[in-house]
Amino acid sequence: MTLQASKLIGKNFAEAFKAVMNHEYRFYTFAGGRGSLKSSFISVVIIILIIKFKFVNVLVLRKVSNTLLDSVYAQLQWAIELLGVEDSFKCTTSPMKIIYKPTGQTILFRGVDKPTKIKSIKLKSGYFAVTWYEESTEFTPEEIRSVNQSVMRGGGLDGKYWFFDSFNPPIHRDNWKNKDLLIDKPNRYIHRSTIYEAPIEWVGKAAIEEAEYLRETNPRLHDNEILGLCTGTGLSVFENLKEIELTDDEIGHFDYYFHGVDWGYFPDPWAYTAMAYDFAKRTLYIYDELWAYKKGNPETSAMLMQHLREGYYKWYTNVKPESPAETCMKLTPDSAEPKSIADYRSYGWHCHEPKKTGLRDYGFKWLQSLTAIYIDKRRAPKTWDEFYSYEHEKNKAGEIIASYPEGRPDHHIACVRYAMEEVYSKRGY
What is the rounded average pLDDT of the residues 301-322? Predict the structure, then answer.
């Protein structure tokens, strides 16, 4: 069977098709808007994989089993018809499965609402080389991890696996799938698609016209539902947040550096964040972080010393290796724990106690007012996640609560506020 993805689904999926057929990755994530054909593509390549590789059996999953028949089962039937191989497949609904008649390879459908039925699955031959999580936002990370572990027990040492997950990115930035997309993972291919790249004869002019109407009337909803972008709810605290990739040389040539610490143990972590500030441009650059759970002051101090000695001397051009890192920088912690401050000073840190001015809200307002907050999320992923996900809350009437939310993860944000207090507490900055 010689097939071209561009002729089946469209040019937007050509690279993905090549990657899947050549098994260039193990994990394939398809994030796209409504009508973007991501599920159509996955269903087509699953049928092709079954025909091409005799060891391939397929497990197709939805969160709830009663949604399988009218979604993924129907989608795979459609793919079989598209490829013109109806005579080679037997489709049954009781039990729900699709069998490739020449070899007996099987596509099984399960809901994760009945996990015991997944663990108890037995195959006559081969293993589940392909697993597809449709609407993967419905699953929890633990559910996916558990299924993957069960599936990968069957292929032996040389087993090949393809894990597909498809979803429309949720509007909320703190949804776990949106956060997951921001993480660079080895052996994972991420594909994004929209209805605008799909062949017009597939989606129809009416669908395109509806999408364009939504663009005109509700741009934020259009960007989420049609473009598949995580737009947030419109309640983001930090609209000035931007990504950046900083080199060691760039980090070493800022004029002003600041370092903050938030005391913690468990369940709140101890946290450290490093940043630089451009006074002229009113721009903040965040480039480093460290955190720990269940570690006392001696342990966190030692961790931070080691961490800084590994990176500090290569970053800062004006620091000599013979000068201990902890004495070269000013560390600004939370003032609420004087004992911890005293401990750090006894360990040799230049631990600067911030003013007890009660400037929490003012600190947030100042951060919001900056021209930009640049974060290198490769170097400071948790800090990025906190700033990115931090949203205003609403009351029961749907009205925005003016104060800044408490109880959300903001440990690295706190580090930034402590470190920068000496700047924003002075008039003119």
Answer: 82
**Residues 6+ positions from 160 with CB-CB distance below 8 Å:** 23, 53, 55, 129
Residues sharing a CB contact under 8 Å with residue 119, sequence separation 6 or more, in sequence order: 150
The CATH number covering residue 409 comes to 3.30.420.280
pLDDT over 70, % of the chain: 88
Range of the domain at 276: 241-424
Q: Are strands 270-278 and 257-262 parallel, antiparallel or unpaired?
A: antiparallel
Q: Specify whether 387 is located in the same domain as 416.
A: yes
Element at 114 (helix H, strand E): none
Whose structure tokens read 């000496």? 422
Tens of pLDDT, residues 17-29: 999 999 999 999 9
What are the angstrom distances between the C-alpha of 311 and each of 2, 252, 274, 381?
52, 11, 12, 17
> Containing H/E element for 2?
none
CB atoms within 10 A of CB 388: 21
Is 31 in the same domain as 96?
yes
Query: How many domains, the chain?
Result: 2
The span from the CA of 106 to the CA of 92, in Å, is: 11
d(CA 345, CA 135) in angstroms, rounded, equals 52
Structure-token pair, residue 251: 């980090």
Residue 6 confidence (pLDDT) above 60: no
Whether the upstream peptide bond of residue 95 has omega within 30° of 0, thus cis, is: yes
Q: How far apart are CA 79 and CA 127, in angstroms?
A: 22
Quote the pLDDT of residue 428: 41
pTM of model > 0.70 = no
Residue 30 lies in a domain: yes
Q: Which stretches within 111-204 are classed as H helix? A: 116-119, 141-151, 176-181, 200-203
CATH of the domain at 26: 3.40.50.300
Choose one of 225, 251, 266: the last residue of a domain: 225
Q: Is residue 79 part of a domain?
A: yes
